[in-house]
Specification:
alpha+beta, 17 helices, 3 domains, 408 residues
Length: 408
Amino acid sequence: MADETKKKLLEAWTFSWPVMNVLIGGRSSIDLPEIQMSGHDEATAFVKSYGYDPDKNHDARLMHATICEALSFIERALMPKEWKNGVQPPDEVLLCRDPRDLLIWACDRSAEVNQRRIWSCAVLRVMHTIAHIEGAFRYSDIDVARDEITGRFQSIVAYDERGDTWIQHSGQAIKIFKMDWKTQKSRESILVKLLHKRANVAETIYDMLGLRVVTEHQSDVMQVVKILYRSHVISFPNAIPSRSRNSIIDPELFTANVEQFRGEYLAGKVTDEQLAEHMQNLVVPAPRDENENQHSGSEYRAIQMTCRQLIRTPRPLTILRKNIQAELDAIPAGDPSGRHLSELVNVFRNISRLSGDDEFSFFPYEIQVMDKESWDINTTGKASHAKYKKSQLRAARRRILNEILPLA
């Protein structure tokens, strides 16, 4: 009896501290040094609690496809040279169809199967990230969101006879040096971005859709931001404050300079031309200590805003009801074959009265505004996007292949 009590007490106070650190310590699950899985039954329970049923054909096919995508991503994006030189998973991992096997292999620390263990861990880390992408983004809705959001911006964009681009509202117009949209983030780019992020959740990808505006002058950066909210193209209550970055212009110095010269203008000390020239040529230094992204160069200069727009998308039943209604409208009046279609339309209409015709969700997008001089620095210097992406990729490689690369 004493031994039984001792066993129960020891079991009650035995913790998997790495897992506890994920749940209460803010650590990402893909950084776990090891997992514990007693066998096939526990692996099955784990997969089901994750949200998939390995005994259902659809889920089994989906999980196998995720394994294949994870292996392909590791080969293509994380270690193409090493893979080509023969640094590859054992055949068991390459041919694996069931994630439960990977879970069990990831727990086996026997020396003779170490390669199988470390490769299973790497594949599971990427699979977890892919699963988050699938769960967080409905790719069919991105087109709807893109069209609605870009349409709002196009309402304040004009082009003159010389082909120059202007952002204008209420009689004010700012000449734009360059403006371009990022309308789709590639799946590979999403994977790399998530794999280097501590949180590793797809809900934190805010730049699936993005706009970059490059102005001729630094002061025009502030004017563009003002026009965006004054024209109601963006809704400032729907901006995400924690995602705002200003590494281009010190707002306090800018405000002080503008207000001083406005005061002189109001007092009649400067002319219209002098005010316009001073404001156009106004340059103030960047704020200090604003860079928080370890993969962005400290030289990167821009105002970055993450906004959200409420996107309406028709529910599947709404689309079906409208399609049936179109068929019903094509049937001649009095034709008895239309009776059942009419009943279906009424059923779907009654359902819509309860749930509504549309689904509503906030879609995030990123805006970057910078002047031409900053754009030149951002695209050619240490802060260039290419260097930023390479830094992300190096971080993802270290995180996923931390046990594999030393053996390459």
